[in-house]
């Protein structure tokens, strides 16, 4: 999921359970190529810290904000204060998982599950107007 803050999802993509996060994340970043997000910071967790994902963000004109894994031979610097805002996106995920149908994946069809994610995002937006 690509989110623009604690209450606004920009895009998301369903993937098989055995698929890795980074390839799907790169597909989502690529889908935002011509959407005017150049110059923005992309806050990612360590699952997306690979060279390929970081390079794609740079090619799209975005600034990757992701800590290197501890065993990296050549670690890089990143904005630690900005990285703390990743908590907002984690809170969005937590609120979405508050919908029992999402966290337990009752729906067998992807289209129905995708619809319910859209529905949950709308409800989250409506009821989070007064939340920070």
From TrEMBL:
Q: Which GO terms describe its biological process?
A: DNA transposition
- Boundaries of each Transposase IS4-like domain copy? 10-124
Is the keyword Cytoplasm assigned to this protein? Answer: no
Q: Which domain of life is it from?
A: Bacteria
Could you tell me which InterPro entries the record lists for this protein? Transposase_11
**One GO molecular function term?**
transposase activity
Alphabetized Pfam families for the sequence: DDE_Tnp_1 (PF01609)
Is Cell membrane included in the keywords of this UniProt record?
Answer: no
Q: Which UniProt keywords apply?
A: Membrane, Transmembrane, Transmembrane helix
Q: Where are the transmembrane segments?
A: 109-129
What PANTHER family does the database record attribute to this sequence? BLR1914 PROTEIN, PHP DOMAIN PROTEIN
The name under which this protein is listed is IS5 family transposase
User: Lineage, please?
Assistant: Bacteria, Pseudomonadati, Pseudomonadota, Gammaproteobacteria, Chromatiales
